[in-house]
Each structure stands twice: as structure tokens, then as C-alpha cells.
Amino acid sequence: MSNRTIKVEALTRVEGEGGLYVQLDGDTVQDVKLSIYEPPRFFEAFLRGRRLEEVPDITARICGICPVAYQMSAVHALEAALGVTISPEIRRLRRLLYCGEWIESHALHMHLLHAPDFLGFNGVADMAAQFPDEVNRGLRLKKHGNELLEVLGGRAIHPINVCVGGFYRAPKKDDLTKLLPDYEWGLEAAIEATRWVATLDFPGFARPYDMVALQHPDEYAMNEGHVASTSGLSIDVREYEQHFEEHHVAHSTALHSVRQGSNASYHVGPLARVNLSLDHLSPRARRLADELDIDWPCWNPFQAIVARGLELVHAYEEAMDIIRDYRPMRPSRIEYTHHAGFGCAATEAPRGLIYHRYEVDREGKITFAKIVPPTSQNQQQIEEDLRDWLPRVIDDDDDQTALDCERLIRCYDPCISCSTHFLKLTIDRGDSR
Amino acid sequence: MSTSAGKPKLGVFKFASCDGCQLSLLDAEDHLLDVLGLVDVTYFLEATSHIEDGPYDVALVEGSITTPHDQERIQDIRRQSSFLITIGACATAGGIQALRNWADCDDFIRTVYASPEYISSLATSTAIADHVQVDFELRGCPINQYQLIEVIQSLVAGRKPRTRTHSVCMDCKQRGNVCITVATGEPCLGPVTQSGCGAICPTYNRGCYGCYGPAKQIHAQSLTDHLIGEGAAPAHVVQLLRNFNSGAEPFRDESNRVEALT
User: Fold this and answer.
1) Which CATH architecture has domain A3-429?
2) Quick one: pLDDT band at residue A250, thresholds 50, 70, 90?
3) How many beta-carbon pairs below 8 A join chains A and B?
4) Which ipTM was obtained for this model?
């Protein structure tokens, strides 16, 4: 049998840069490497010695698409280190901010980055000619998310209003309530968008995933909860590092996360969250989940786009509830004093669980930082998925095989800038066929 | 600007960065399809799988130079591009990752990676202009999307793009904000930081932390003298100047001067 190599030099419609290398011996998959060549920036190193107050501003810069996820994990971890308990009002506003990021990120990925794969387009510009209503809806929903981030966070990319203890300034009631008419339209449009993506042509492909996400007894987990998995894990966030560990592999500047002991891969993201917390979706999102032609829990990675849609609906509904009930709060932030300590936190970024741990000294300086982004946790899972997926698509020419691999990778909405601490496709078929 | 083939060809290129500045283009929701209609996007990995070889009439470059490979890649992009615009603090000043310029980078690699031998990284993070000629720069961490749209529209119309270079302090006065430093004593970089964000930090009751880098014709020492005179620890002032634009000359030089005092 001949050997064959297939390469994707640069993955597209993902955040950050990486490639894929696949080596085949006939129909046997010899090697799959998701190569992440995004240059390392060493956040965990240069955070040492910085004032803890700077951490939400600095870690936001790990990712331009999900800065709120970094800010939220950072402030919760530092508050754990300092023994700060935030007020219920601050807690609700943090969920509201996260709703803004979920709306922006999910609307972007569903309409502009992922839908073109199912409809056969290169990107939004060519898709817009045939699907103008869908593209314009996606842009409008995305804008709603950004507008909420601007009101509450000061700006959409790298918000400036998040601080350890709460917010620098409480938003004005009017500034939030004026978003409501657009959000009422947005909720209906999000439901319509979810029904639309649920009708896309999904390959019949299911995997025996161990799906991991935060779970909370009373709500759809965003900012807090215990770490749960579909294989029955249920642990306090403080035990995270006893169950999950990072490995450094030669082909990636992003560390691979695996289950401690077994070295097994696991799956984080919207599909994991919906599977683990279906009954905590908002009322309309929950009803919509039943109405769609999908059995939950769902094990088809291609249908993550539908899970994103359900979360989009949820985020609109919850955001409107929080805004309607909001009363400007005082103080907008809880005071604290510096003392030595350590703390960790996990929250749910749009693309999955994100874990931070910090140690601080008595002057409020960071002495240790550990950041585990969602995409580095999904990396090994994506490689395993590809091993299973490739035999179905290797009969095509190299270009089509490469495209089919990229489609699977994009289901994870990979965030490569984040994970580097990520993608090109190379398929090695030895002597070409 | 136009080419014989019609619409100018636009390439968007990424180096070490968070992707936030190129996302600013996708974030221009109301204008996105119009702007994409003005140009022929021939390289924009984040947005489209449609890729064409150069040359490019306009290149938007995000990110800083941190690897030997990227040192070569930027030369190649420059050779293929008629008008090269750097977007954001990473591209214009080295970004937050330029903090390694004051540290032992090998130590940084060992801190983050179990197998340092797998990592290929330069000891420094440097601005694009340190490597190739840059035709226009857009500041900010992140850039302002309206400035980006204005630059693209200007180039398509054949005008020279312009941005304002006054300080955040001026914008703050226009917004009618109470001065953070005067009222609370909290350090604010507004007097030395270039306009572009809309003075959002002081508007949200906090000091400016310099996302847009140094404004034109600043005297940074006047500010640091004042802050230290009011009781700020010099080490705090050094870190204030050393974040997202630490590699910008006025911030770099002043942080080095204050550090030498401590």
C-alpha cells in the first residue's frame, strides 16, 4: 500500500494560526498532528511580579474573541485567594457580561465561521450573496453581544470595567434597558437561527466522548459550579489539577490537556455544557431543544453548532431577565486587603471550560500563574476525532480530504491564540497516489 | 487606490497577538459587507478560506515579531505589499509579550513549557517597524474599528489616512470627566497616552493604562515626577508604563529611567 501525506498549511476561519499534518499508509491512519505554531507569548511567566489588580486587564489579551472568559476566571481565582465574597448583584452583572460574550462569539461562529462549511462557501463575503438574510441576522446578533459588552464593559474587545471585587463602575439602568427592544428581536432571531442550523446536513458521526463542563445545582453554569463530566466525574474546582494535567508535545506550542492517570482525552465546549445542563437552559431554549430533531445528550461534534444556538437563545433570555431586574448597585466593587494566598477558579468560555490558578504575596503581587484554556483541552480530542473521521474521507483527493478535516476541526471553534501557551494541514500519504 | 484589475487586494496577516485587532474588522457589523465590497480580500485566514497569492495592494499586519520564522515572513509580506499598515499595540510596539525584553526569555520558556527544546522563540518581542518599512500605523489594544474603516476607505479613495494624535486627557476634558488622578490620587496615563479609545477608563472611574501608546510630543517625566511626588511607588510607575505598549520608545525610555532611580 502506498503512503500518503496530507497537509493543511494554515487552517482558516479559526481564531489564531495552526495547521494539520496527517500521515496515511494506504487506508491506515499512521499519524495525526494538530500543529499549533502560534508563537508563545509567555503570559504565565510575565504575570509573576505584576500587581494582582492588573491580571484581568493582562489576561484579557490572551484572546481578542473571548477576553471576558479570561477576565472572569482571573477575578474569581484572585477573589478566592483574597477571601473576597462578591454580592449577589455583582454576581448577576458578571453573568450578564458573560451573556454578552456568548452572544457575540456564538453568533460569529454560527453564522460567519461555521455555517459556510455546511453551505459550501469560503467565507462570509461569498455566503452573503446567496444567504443575505442569514448573514445579516448573524451580524445583527453579534452586534447585540458587542453592545452589551460596551455598556457593561466599556468596550467589546478587552473590556476595561472588570476588576477584582466587582466592577469599576455600575452601569446605568437606562443604558441597559435601552438594549431591551433589540434583545426582544434578538431572542426571536436566535430561535430562528437555531432552527436553521438544526436543518443543516450533518454527517452521521458520533463519538464516545468524555464531556467535561461546569455544572451548577440551580442554574446553567457560567461563572461557578463544580467540574462535572458525562462519565460521572463531579469534583470541586480546587481538585481540578488532581484530575486533569497538561502535556507538552513537540508539534504544538499549546499544551495538551488529558485526564490524570489514564491520559485520556476529553471534550469541552457548548455540546458538553448542553449535555450536562440541559434542564437548566432558559425556558425557551429548553423547549427549543425538545422541538429539534436531535436526541440529547448529543455525541455528534458537527452538531455543536446547534448547542451554540441553544446557548445563544439562553444568553438572550437570561440577559433580558437580568436587565429587567437590575437596580444600580452600591458599592460596585467589594473592598479587600492584600495578604498572601492562593486561589483557583473555572468558568465557561464560549468554547469551553477555562481554569486559572494564582498565588499572590502579601503585597498583592502575583508569584505564580497557571492558565488552562479551552482549546488546549480539546486538542488531543480533536486529533482522536480525526483518526476516526479520516477513514471516511480519505478516498477523496488530498484537497477534499484536507477540507473535510478542517470542517471537523472548526466544530470545536478553536481559539488558537488562547491555547498557545495552535493550526496548518499536512497529510502524508508517503509516495503520492 | 485601485489596481489595473479593479478593486485593491487586501491581505490581513497575523504575528504574535490575540487576534483582537483583526476581529475589529469583523466587529464592524454595520459596515462589514460594505467594506468587504470595496476591496478584494485575498488573504484573511480568520474570515475566509479563499486564499490568493500576493501581491497585495494593502496589507494589514497584526502582531509582533517573536520567532526566527516570523522575522523572515514579515520581509516576504513587505516585498509583496504596496501599502503596509500595522494594526494594534503588538504590531506597533511589541505588545504585552514585549515584557520579555526585560527578562531572561529562556527562563520564561522554562516557566511555561516542560520541554523547552520544542520551543523556537526570539529573546525579544519587537514592533513590525523594527524589521520593515511601515506606511501607516493604527494604535491601540485593541484598535478602534472606526479608525480602521476610515483608513481602508481613505486608501480606496486615494486619500492619505489620518488619525488624531492628541492625548486621552483632551478627550477626557471633552467628555466632562472629573480627573481621576486629581480627585482620587490614582495614577492615570491619560496625559501621555494617544487618543482613540474615547477616554473610556476615566469614564469608568479608573486611571488610563495606556492602550493606545504614547501621544505625540509628550513629556513623560512630568507625569512620573508628579505621580511619584504624590506617593506612587516608583516600581508601580515602572509597571504602569510597561504593559501593552512597553516597547514604544517614550514609554520604554521613561520606564527605564524611573527603574534606574529605584
Assistant:
1) Orthogonal Bundle (1.10)
2) confident
3) 184
4) 0.95
